[in-house]
Design a protein that fits this description.
heterodimer, A: 458 residues, Immunoglobulin-like, five-stranded antiparallel sheet, 10 helices, 20 strands, elongated, B: 172 residues, 2 domains
């Protein structure tokens, strides 16, 4: 009756007029249609046998006490028979930190409120954690009893991963006191998706770009004399040199005019080359993200860091020429790159099927590259082809730095062999004069770069 | 990174169920010692069922506890004791089964206390309501034994029949 009245006053279509109607469809607050499932749990089945036990014992012993005890069988059978699954009007809200960094642990707090008029003695909820996120601590499951208007909260921690993650409707089981019948329903809240985008590297990170630069002013120190801060050389005075650059000390000592030259600082043009071939889809264990994802995250961090420093940055994918953003700078370029990282299917793969199976050679890429562009290659280096192509690019004048997320482990003999092969490939690249950053799985990119930087400057 | 859900029976249910079972066994054992012979294996079965999440073992344990109450009734234990013992064994079994189901559905890690307590409250009130009514019936007709037996047998049969009818059409 209360149901009927509620429907009249609010003017809404009656969601659940028949409590026992198994096909009762409910339109939730988000306007999505889902159907409740009602079922008997059968947990009290056979409890009336207790009555037969009691009668049998009573007849056998000519004693009223066992007879009386047999009554339990009858009352509990009636209790179970009368049990109904109550109507559930539940509202769910999720709260979590906005825009976490990848790999950061995010605490999700779920609040479930009984918006109906009947009390729910037994509500079991399994929250719809987005498929790509992994629960690191706590559990997205909860059971509680909820009076009308009562609210229960629980929380769990997920590890954020790059991308936009929609929460699925929570699965809820509602039982009455006896638990003889249960209602399975889905509660979709109006939760915002969990959006996770990598930030830039800390400003102090020195990506140690190689001395291959554009004619524009920037921060990469070159071996070219001209305007700058650091002393580079002196040369013979030529008419037209500014007076402030004349080395007056030499003039006083020897009487000859000479001009000071400083090391020019110029902007680099960098192409971030990401390995998106199927070979690169490897990960240390089942629950981890793939090395491709890790490479893309690294590239995004390097992109913001480089473009903030005034360098010209572009994006390319290894094995294809379709995914290509020529080096550039400025706000528009930054927006274009962010859009590309977000929407390009090759850069946000859900499975290995999204990647490139038959890669084309880097010869095609070389046509696209500006002549003075240097390359930062992001690849797990798990096959020989990528090493060969990297050397080819480096030899063609595009100085190459490889940043390699390390997906290998030492759990089995085979995995140890894979790790050794990868170490050999890195040694091979270093012998060929390329720079390699070995990026271990658990560490941030900054740490890997500063460790590798120490090796380069030594 | 993501640990598998621990689907063993929940902790509060396990503790309460075993405590209630021990209480029932003690109560019956004090008034009639031989009933321990049934209730002790009952507790062991219940514990094993809760350890391994096996509903059959728990049901076996519950039955043994209930049989212990009936046996106590055959002996010297009073009607009141038998009723309370029976009520406690049903409650213990029910909480144990609920703990196993909750363990399977939401896992051992989840917070389940309020749901388990409200479920237990329902069962306890039905069990002790039954015990009180049955005792009142018994005390009300406290006359010759044959009359009591016949009356109770009739009442039990009627209730049994109605219960069986109640249960069958609704179970799908």
């Amino acid at each position: 009756m209360s149901e009927q009245r509620r429907a009249e006053t609010t003017g809404e279509p009656e969601p659940n007029a028949e409590p026992d109607d198994a096909d009762g469809a409910t339109v939730d607050s988000a306007g999505r249609l889902h159907e409740d499932v009602l079922r008997r749990t059968g947990r009290w089945t056979g409890v009336s046998a207790l009555a037969l036990f009691g009668v049998a014992f009573g007849v056998f012993s000519q004693n009223p006490a066992p007879f009386l005890a047999g009554v339990f069988g009858v009352t509990f059978a009636a209790y179970a028979g009368a049990g109904r699954a109550p109507d559930a009007h539940l509202d769910i809200e999720r709260e979590f930190e906005d825009r976490p960094d990848p790999g950061e642990e995010v605490e999700v707090t779920v609040a479930l409120e009984n918006g109906g008029e009947s009390s729910l003695p037994d509500v079991r909820i399994v929250d719809g954690v987005p498929g790509q996120l992994h629960v690191a601590a706590g559990t997205p499951r909860h059971a509680a009893s909820l009076d009308p208007g009562e609210r229960v909260t629980f929380s769990y921690t997920v590890v954020a991963e790059r991308g936009t993650h929609e929460f699925e409707p929570a699965q809820v089981l509602v039982r009455g006191f006896s638990g003889a019948a249960e209602r399975e329903t889905r509660v979709a809240g109006e939760s915002e998706p969990l959006v996770c985008t990598p930030g830039s590297l800390p400003p102090s990170t020195n990506l140690s770009l190689q001395p291959l630069t554009t004619p524009y002013a920037g921060r990469v120190e070159t071996d070219i004399g001209g305007d700058g801060l650091e002393f580079y050389a002196t040369r013979e005075y030529q008419p037209g040199d500014p007076l402030s650059r004349v080395d007056w000390n030499t003039r006083a000592r020897t009487g000859e005019l000479s001009t000071l030259e400083f090391r020019e600082e110029r902007a680099a043009s960098v192409v971030l080359l990401i390995d998106v071939r199927t070979e690169a889809w490897c990960r240390p264990d089942e629950s981890a993200t793939s090395a491709v994802e890790r490479s893309v995250e690294g590239a995004m961090q390097a992109f913001s860091s480089l473009i903030d420093a005034g360098d010209r940055v572009g994006i390319a994918a290894l094995g294809t020429t379709e995914c290509w953003l020529p080096p550039g700078s400025g706000g528009d370029h930054r927006t274009r790159a962010r859009e590309m990282f977000r929407t390009e299917p090759l850069l946000s793969p859900d499975s290995v099927d999204d990647l490139i199976e038959r890669p084309i050679s880097v010869a095609a890429l070389r046509h696209q590259l500006p002549s003075h562009a240097q390359i930062i290659l992001f690849s797990p280096l798990v096959d020989d082809l990528v090493v060969e192509q990297a050397k080819l690019l480096d030899a063609s004048g595009h100085l190459l730095t490889a940043v390699s997320p390390n997906p290998t482990t030492t759990a089995t003999t085979g995995e140890s062999v894979a790790r050794m092969e990868r170490d050999l490939r890195m040694a091979d690249l270093r012998r060929s004069g390329l720079r390699v950053v070995d990026w271990n799985w658990e560490e941030p990119l900054v740490t890997a770069i500063s460790r590798a930087g120490a090796r380069w400057s030594a | 990174m993501s640990p598998a859900v621990d689907r063993r029976p929940t902790r509060p249910g396990t503790v309460i169920s075993l405590a209630v079972a021990v209480l029932a066994a003690t109560l019956l054992g004090v008034s009639m010692a031989p009933s321990i012979g049934l209730s002790l294996p009952g507790i062991v079965l219940l514990g094993a069922g809760l350890r391994y999440g096996c509903e059959r073992l728990v049901t076996g344990g519950g039955l043994a506890l209930f049989a212990g109450a009936l046996v106590a009734g055959i002996g010297a234990a009073g009607v009141g004791t038998v009723l309370i013992g029976g009520a406690l064994s049903v409650v213990s079994w029910d909480i144990a089964v609920n703990a196993i189901e909750l363990g399977e559905q939401v896992g051992r890690e989840a917070e389940t206390r309020s749901a388990e307590l409200s479920h237990a409250a329902g069962t306890v009130s039905v069990a002790f309501g039954t015990a009180v009514v049955a005792y009142a019936l018994y005390a009300g007709v406290d006359g010759g034994r044959p009359i009591v037996s016949v009356v109770l047998l009739t009442v039990a049969a009627v209730l049994l029949a109605s219960a069986l009818r109640l249960e069958s059409p609704s179970s799908t």
